[in-house]
Amino acid sequence: PSADDLAEEMEDVDFEDEGAEEPDAEAWDSEDDEGVEDGMEAQDDSEVTFSLHSDSVFCVSLDPKTNTLAVTGGEDDKAFVWRVSDGELLFECSGHKDSVTCAGFSHDSVFVATGDMSGLIKVWRVDAKEEVWSFEVGDLEWMEWHPQAHVLLAGTADGNTWMWKIPSGDCKTFQGPACPATCGRILPDGKRAVVGYEDGTMRIWDLKQGTSLHVLKGQDGHQDPLTCVASNQDGSLIMTGSVDCHAKLINSATGKVVCVFKMESVTPKAPVSEGEEAESNSVESLGFCNVMPLAAVGYLDGTLAIYDLSTQSLRHKCQHESGIVQLLWEESSAVVYTCSLDGAVRLWDARSGKMISEYRGHSAEILDFAVNKDASIVVTTSGDHQAKVFCVQRPDR
């Protein structure tokens, strides 16, 4: 049977009843994808599809208070706030003139901020659906809300990190080296921020004083641009990831490197002939587990590495067929979620290193995703111009 025949047969199946008793994961082997040229489109496990974007959808965030609203931004210079339950549009965050690459809700879901590549940042009041503030900086690299206050932090290509009070607009800048501030994160105490730069350096900033508490550079820093930073739940440990394929564990109080996790490539690098690209790899995403001393690092070559922090050793390697774009830990268990360039979301048990489940539905790479607080839904955005909502309730809960 052709893919179309299969799809038509699928339409007659009533999935509602079947979901009641979860089928054994082993039964779903990969045979069903054989002979289906475009396997990515054949299967759609999502509950809701949001399709108002007309180009790649770059970013998504859920509102922290109720987890009922999503904001998505895309290459179509548009951002939308919509309901997760049915994909219903609440309002459009209009007025951007470049790809919207950053979007997120304030800690209490009162405001939503959207930022585009050119550096135009807008903040909207969610209940009134109206813009309350906007500001233009240099080319935007990242943007994040403060965990306890109406304060917005953003890093730009000129090396600056900006901080504003919303909606008054009181502003402070933290001047880094003269190269892009590629990633940043406010630490859980709300008083410090860690920022990574393109030259491989990392700084911990005191947000109140505007001073740099610690600088990691040279041998202590990375040899290539930083791609991501994360902190553990109490902010005592920071992890940085870089294009140099190293992940560094840092004590945030002392600014000292505790250990370096290096991913040794399995195959020796063949000499690259002229005009050929060397196989590239880099750390793309990382994060700490809240309930066990574990950290996860996702690599562009498709490796998910689970490191044991107490022994500072590699615990599991979970292989993906294509690059990992982002990973997130469940808030209260040792389950880590990955999304990758093959368009699938996967759940992994970090204790065993085994895959728990896999969800598909996009016909292109997943570019960003978010998990709600009780880990029952995942919202994804993709190069296929769509955002999707997947229900991931697991039978073991």
Automatic annotation (TrEMBL):
Residues 1-45 are annotated as: Disordered. The keyword Manganese does not apply. One of its GO terms (cellular component) is cytosol. Its main location: cytoplasm. CDD domains: WD40. Keywords: Cytoplasm, Repeat, WD repeat. Pfam families: ANAPC4_WD40, WD40. It is found in: Cytoplasm. Plays a role in angiogenesis and cell migration. In smooth muscle cell migration, may act through the RhoA pathway. This is Angio-associated migratory cell protein.
